[in-house]
Design a protein that fits this description.
3-stranded antiparallel sheet, binds magnesium ion, 4 helices, 28% helix, alpha+beta, 17 strands
């Protein structure tokens, strides 16, 4: 499979730059999660994200990427990924919000995503969020030197299937670091081939996208927004990690700067 033919081992110099951009990305993510409230439009959220990104000294890694028009991706409820901030879309108390962010700085770029709601959530919504986050963490735990990409996929899939969630197949995790998308792909489901062996210096964005209903998706007429076909809720959690000699280093882990 062509998607597994390539991978990137980053140099120590690159890793320092990547680590910096990842920390900036994590900082903006956590600031945004604290600031996003019902009543805001998704355009306001995008503009706020743009300000927070500029305050780090970096730039949006998403803006203009393949023509993407926003600073970040904001996807609500049944929207899986790639939602665009718009003035007429007002966040409701009952919504779940997925934000996906990448800050570019000095030759490095980050990638992280989180889904959250407001107040106490309906049981099934909470179950979706918990399972998706745990699927991400299971994938990270499998991202050890000597394992293969498919070991990450298997760990994510196992956790998702324990809650019978739909695993989005069309979009997958990926290498990241100097470019927003680098090889290899990191599927959230087991594939026929095991993919590259994990080697220190690889930087991977692991990002399960799980649905309460079926795994089937469709694209909106805006050419970007991906949503579930059956209208069920979707969650997205993503960290970028560095393969090391020991445990993976979560580059987008929250850290007080
Ligand atoms: Mg990503």
């Amino acid at each position: 499979m062509a998607l597994f033919r390539d991978y990137v081992i980053h140099t120590p110099e690159e890793i320092e730059k990547i680590r910096r951009a990842m920390q900036m990305t994590a900082q903006v993510r956590d600031q945004l999660v604290a600031l996003v409230k019902p009543g805001m439009s998704t355009l306001q959220i995008d503009q706020l994200a743009g300000e927070l990104i500029r305050a780090t000294g970096g730039t949006s890694g998403f803006l203009n990427y393949h023509g993407f028009p926003g600073n970040i991706c904001i996807s609500l409820n049944d929207e899986v990924v790639h939602g665009i901030g718009v003035a007429h879309r007002i966040v409701q108390e009952s919504d779940i919000v997925s934000i996906d962010i990448g800050v570019a700085y000095d030759g490095g770029v980050g990638d992280t995503a989180v889904t959250f709601g407001f107040g106490s959530l309906p049981r099934d919504t909470q179950r979706l969020l918990t399972a998706t986050k745990e699927a991400l963490m299971a994938g990270i735990a499998a991202a050890k030197k000597g394992n293969y990409i498919r070991d990450i996929s298997r760990a994510v899939e196992k956790r998702a299937m324990a809650d019978q969630l739909g695993i989005v197949r069309e979009m997958v995790g990926h290498g990241v670091g100097v470019h927003l998308h680098e090889p290899p792909d990191v599927p959230n489901y087991v594939t026929p081939v095991r993919g590259p062996k994990l080697v220190p210096g690889m930087v991977l964005a692991i990002e399960p996208m799980l649905n309460l209903g079926s795994n089937r998706i469709k694209q909106d007429s805006d050419g970007w927004t991906i949503r579930t076909r059956d209208g069920s809720l979707s969650a997205h959690f993503e960290h970028s990690i560095l393969i090391t000699e020991q445990q993976p280093e979560i580059l987008t882990w929250p850290k007080t700067m």
